[in-house]
Amino acid sequence: MFWNNLIITYRNLKNSKWYTFINISGLAIGLASSILLLLYIFNQWNYNQSFQNIDRTYAVIKHYMPPGQEPSTSWSQPNVLGPTLAQEYPEIASFTRHTFNWTTLFTYKETGIKGAGPFVDSAFLEMFDVKLIKKATSDIFEDPNSIIISSEFAKRIFKDEDPLNKIIKRQDQDALKVVGVYEPFTKNSFLAGTDFLLPWKYFEQTTPYIKEANWGNFNYDTYLVLKPNVDYKEFNKKIKYFIDKHSDDAGEETITALFPLSKKYLYGKFVNGKSVGGRIDLIRLLLILTMGILVIACINFMNLSTARSEKRAKEVGIRKSIGASRVSLTRQFLVESILLSFCSCLLAILIVLLVLPYFNRLLSLQLILPFTRPGFWLGLVGLILFTGFLAGSYPAIYLSSFKPIEVLKNRIKKGKNRFSLRQVLVITQFTFAVGLIVCSIIIFNQVNYIKNLPMGYDNKQIIQVDIEGATENDGQAELVKQRILDEGAATSVCITSNNVSRESSSTWGVEWSGMKEDQKLTVFQQVACSDDFVKTFGMQLTAGRDFEKSHKSDSTAVILNDAAVKTMGFQDPIGQTIKWQGENRTVIGVIKNFTLGSPYEQQNPLIVGYRPDWRSLFNIKLPSNLSTSQALSKIEKIFKEVNPAYPFEYRFIDKQFEMKFINETLLGDLVKIFGSLAIIISCLGLFGLAAFSAEQRTKEIGVRKVLGASVNSIVVLLSGNFIKLVIVSNIIGWGLSYWAMHNWLQQFTFKTGIHLWEFAVTGVLSILIAILTVSTQAIRAAWMNPVKSLKSE
Fold first, then answer.
1. Number of domains in the chain
2. Are residues 730 and 779 in the same domain?
3. Residue 656 contacts by C-beta under 8 Å, 6 or more apart in sequence?
4. Alpha-carbon gap, residue 655 to 662, rounded angstroms
5. For this UniProt entry, which segments traverse the membrane (predicted)?
6. Whether residue 219 sits in one domain with residue 102
7. What is the average per-residue pLDDT within 106-110?
């Protein structure tokens, strides 16, 4: 029976090549879109899931809830938190500390290569399944002056040499022995791109203050593995005020807790100390998008199948008259549907292979079709069957319901309802597509609105260069700065402790005149710098002046932003004294708030303190009288003379600023691309319904033409109903998209409005596309010879 159904299906599809082509193409586009989105969703869903004990691995987090301020959550912890927790609580199986990935120069013979990696405790190796390909000792990291490197990094440094027991220099100074080579971490984890691992003992050896218990310095990630059957929620109750217990500076405003590492990536957004989502919100939106595109592709199949109902009617009538049951006919049409779904899936895979490189470029990922995984093929079979049954169910039920007598006498009942099921399906299609287009426009406008908000400083033509090697020495950084200025390669240079394009350093315990009791633990962002801070970044002074070399008193000076002045309650801030980092400092300037942290939120109070010894970055403002390449060439020459072993590397600040919008831009791009595909697929659905309508009204069109109706009047007659469907779709789509975007915009402090023109543009565009789609069938029907349409067999 199955092979008989397959043969009949093949003959029907072969005899209707144009119908088969359109149906397969529509389904293929829908399936290809779904596969691409599912690949991305699967990638994000499995982030950090590859570690062996992921179900028992936790990141330690801190909820800081000071009175009178917005609560905040941080992943960074004191250097002694992990060891102290492990010592006091037997529920902990192991712990490790993890610094951020330091970019470091390593030298072997004459080769100098930069790599990125953290300092970690020895337990890190087991906790995160570090797969050692080679090792020189059974006790890795016993020697503080040891290092393990990834196989990729080993090839870069040693080429074809065996790296084990080789000595390499770190920062052209410390000699380290390579005691292990590990497989690179999967790109789908927070450890991706880790070139090397250094022992925490070495960190303590080179940075002596790390040995001291400092409960007020939150700079290191801490991860724990709990013993089996330990409930982390119950454990959190025990450690809630752990930092308060050990630190005089912290109070009940500081809450310590564990958070599952498996959820950190997707559920890492916290409000008032509670996880409220995060990247999972994007995943949910993309799942809805995936299902929506797949459904509208299936709707196309239904419309195109029922559009051919009269051509298949006699086949159904004859087969029923010779004894075929409705069940067998339904089975036959479902086999057709599944076969079409199979062919569409093959074409969809070809489309995915062709567009995947561009999709990866958009997402900055390396997604692949996992042909070697059995789960992929099972999922593909499931997708084919699901699509086949979903797309073929209604046509199978509809076509198999024809009565033989009525069919053979050409008396098929034609729907007279104002809205048939097919019309409802088309409305559903266009509602989804219209909604996506409106959403993409609003998301695009929101991102542009935030980008164009005043940043408070000029980030154009400013490069950052790391202070490393010789420039770390006292006085050398100032000499390099002066040489750059003397060469005319910059209009100004400022040395800072951290990047002004993101929040990376904060403090509390600041004191000022008139401070209230509940403001003792107010958190301030901080930046330490040399002179010319305001000049280099083009900050906007609202009072006072910049740090200047000529003012020796600036060594005990600070600059505040407007938010800090408001927090401190100063009416006339210039000349006021505050206590910052344990020293009395004089306020010499006030700058407008600038975008240090998230551009979507109110800016936090900031203290900019004159501390050239807290040096991390050169910030160099390139001149306008030289080309960028000329200025960079001069700057590179200076750095090469000072640091000959170090490659000259720089970053433009404006490019880093763009990274703040990556999630919203990605969402907008995906909605825009797949919204456009939804419109294309929906137009195929309209084409199918237009063909169905023209087929049903063939004789009516013939009579009208015989009675003198013009081609234009017939085109308007056939197109009018479809335009009404699109208008209804727009009205529903507008309402749904307004509701969705209104809720989405609530997460932003600064947001653009929802404007009438966004809906109007979408409406006009969708109607024009619908007219072009439908008119092809309408004109074809209007030009048909009435003699043929009125001829009775």
1. 4
2. yes
3. 499, 501, 502
4. 11
5. 21-42, 282-304, 333-356, 376-399, 420-444, 673-694, 706-734, 754-774
6. yes
7. 86
